[in-house]
Amino acid sequence: MSAAAVTPVFVRLKLSLLRNGLRQSGGRKAAYITSAVFALLFAALQLIGLIALRGHAHAASVVVLAVAVLGLGWAVMPLFFPSGDETLDPTRLVMLPLRPRPLVRALLTASLVGIGPLFTLCLLIGSVVAVARGGAAFVVGVVAVALALLMCVALARAVAAANVRLLASRKGRDLAVLSGLVIAIGAQIVNFGAQRLGTSGLGELDPVADVLQWVPPASAISAVQAVSEGSYGLAVVQLALTAGALVALLVVWSRHLTRLMTSPDESTLTSTETAVRERSSTGLGRLLPSGRTGTVMERSLRYVWRDPKTKAAWVTSLAIGLIVPVFNAWQGTGSVYIACFAAGMLGIMMYNQFGQDTSAFWIVALTISSPRDAYVELRARALALLLITLPYATLVTVVTTAMLGDWRRLPEALGLSFALLGAMLATGAWTSARFPYSIPQEGYKNVAPGQAGLAWISIFGGMVAASVLCAPVIALTIWLNVSARGDDWTWLLLPVGSAYGAVLSAVGLRLAAPQTARRLPEILAAVSKG
Q1: What's the burial of 290, exposed, middle or buried (CB within 10 Å: 0-12/13-18/19+)?
Q2: Helices 115-131 + 59-80 axis angle, to 10
Q3: Coil, strand or helix: which one is 440?
Q4: Other CB atoms closer than 10 Å to residue 483's CB: what's the count?
Q5: Of 19, 324, 428, 480, which is most buried, counting CB atoms within 10 Å of its CB?
Q6: Residue 121 φ then ψ, to 5°
Q7: Cα atoms in the Cβ-side hemisphere of radius 13 Å centred on 353
Q8: Residue among 396, 419, 418, 416 nearest 325 (CA)
Q9: Positions of the region Disordered (predicted)?
Q10: Helices 218-228 and 59-80, axial angle in degrees (round to 10)
Q11: What span, in angstroms and rounded, lies between the C-alpha atoms of 427 and 465?
Q12: Neighbouring residues of 237: CB distance < 8 A, sequence distance ≥ 6
């Protein structure tokens, strides 16, 4: 079947998939319409903003960087959001009598239908208007927009085809869940980048743009700037780079499609040796205490490594807990006390301890017959958390202190971090028993429908309570820093904060144990809801 005959069919198929998906439920339709409105509104604002840059001295640097980031977004989109477009999975077409080249053309055309391509088109048009001067530049801009748009779509398709086996596996689902980490880290980088630009000006982008102007698809937009400046030879080279990259992506995409259509799925073929190796113990149990404490600690640590949602939460907390203090120290705007942010981010992991078990919590519930059993269970979970949080919080505090060169305040910062961590362990254990909620295993939601209020009370209420519990150590820190001879005694904050945090965590676990033993049926019902 020729591409001319296949392409209209695939375009109609894409429209049918969109239409039928919206018919599944009113909630899905409302979510899609809402996201479409916000995306188009943001695209319109970006278009207006880029047009407003026209004539600015650094407009070319801004648009080149924006298009480069846009291309990166298209590259990672299939990895982090594999379920966003049903047509990204070419294995659904393996039974159809289609040849790779007509299939590539049809899929490429169908991929231009959607909110993402429209958003990309608006940004590319605004970029061209921002840098184009003269009729020749606008003519080249039309070619540049077409090449850049096709390359973005082809890039997403090639990445999806190359990783389709991964995206359908458990590791692929883990990768998709970790998209929250990328968003969180990206937001912090954008925040600090915006602060730096606000103080230094857009001229800071020029060195980066000088490199990215040779990287497709940004090179296509840079060609428009080159024509505006009369550098026609440079423009031809930059357009050729984008066109060459587009052709290369289409070739790679075609080859992956051919392999997918003709070869078996090796991801389902596991050798006996591999299966035995996966079932073998990692030796972690030999390093932990014996009895129930060690068993519970090992189970909790395995959750961190194997459960997608738990892993995503931990990795995100570890990354943000390091990025915020270090970036502030790097900019010279922070203090050693902001290192407590790391302890706070990791202390949140103690909240809703039973929710991560979901319906499997009934196995744990069968082993709890008294407050003593509940206490050992909670204590072991807290110890597993401390195995990671204590050295990590110490490391972040030392690194932040070293970057600021304020070693005199290191004991204070460590004491406050340990006190905060102990307070969050205490309040986290209690709220885990009093306000448990379910964490859905599928999708991107972290709270089951109808339990958002419980999640807010558990996390934010517990954090407020932890802050109140840390008030004595905070007051002592302030008093020692304002008193005349207090600087000679600030080192006491390290042992005082450590001891205070240990006492708080022990008392919190003792108070939470009777609650846990008494409310086992309610906890089981709450965490199994999702």
Answers
A1: exposed
A2: 170
A3: coil
A4: 11
A5: 428
A6: -60, -45
A7: 33
A8: 396
A9: 268-291
A10: 160
A11: 7
A12: none
CA dist., res. 397 & res. 366, Å (int): 41
Question: Tokens 């992506």 — which residue?
Answer: 249
Q: Return the pLDDT at 273.
A: 44
* pLDDT on residue 511: 93
Q: How far apart are CA 373 and CA 506, in angstroms?
A: 15
- Is the Cβ–Cβ distance between 189 and 113 less than 8 Å? no
Q: How many C-beta atoms lie closer than 10 Å to residue 24's C-beta?
A: 9
Residue with tokens 């419980």: 454
Taking CA atoms, 266 is separated from 83, 175, 400, 420, in Å, by 22, 20, 46, 49
- List all residues 6 or more positions away from 28 whose beta carbon is below 8 Å from its beta carbon: 21, 22
- The Cα 397–Cα 390 span in angstroms is 11
The structure tokens listed for 60 are: 């070319």
Residue 333 in 3-state DSSP? coil
Residue found by looking up tokens 């070319």 in the block: 60
CB atoms within 10 A of CB 387: 15
Confidence at residue 194, expressed as pLDDT on a 0 to 100 scale: 57
Q: How far apart are the first and last CA of the chain?
A: 46
Please name the residue that has the structure tokens 């919590």: 361
Query: What single string gives the DSSP state of each residue in 7-18?
Result: HHHHHHHHHHHH
pLDDT beneath 70, residues of the chain: 1-4, 21-22, 24-28, 31, 78-95, 163-204, 263-285, 333, 441-446, 448-450, 484, 486, 530
* DSSP state for residue 529 in the 8-state scheme: -
Long-range contacts of 515-519 (CB under 8 A, 24+ apart): 515/430, 515/433, 515/434, 516/368, 516/371, 516/374, 516/377, 516/378, 516/432, 516/433, 517/368, 517/369, 517/370, 517/371, 517/373, 517/374, 519/433, 519/434
Give the residue carrying structure tokens 């968003």. 183
Joined tokens for residue 205: 């982008």
Residue 454, token pair as written in the block = 């419980």
Alpha-carbon span 132 to 139, nearest angstrom: 9
Contact yes or no for 294/384 (Cβ under 8 A)? no
What does the buried/exposed string (b/e) look like for 458-476 if buried means 16 or more CB atoms within 10 Å of the residue's CB? bbeebbebbeebbeebbeb
Cα-based angle 247, 64, 104 (whole degrees, multiple of 5)? 20
**What pLDDT does 183 receive?**
58
Q: Which residues contact 253 (CB under 8 A, 6 or more apart)?
A: 104, 154, 157, 158, 161
Q: What is the 8-class DSSP label of residue 457?
A: I
The encoded tokens of residue 193 equal 């980048």
For residue 13, the tally of other CB atoms under 10 A from its CB is 15
Instruction: Report residue 188 CA to chain centroid gap.
Output: 11
Helix (H) or strand (E) holding 131: helix 115-131
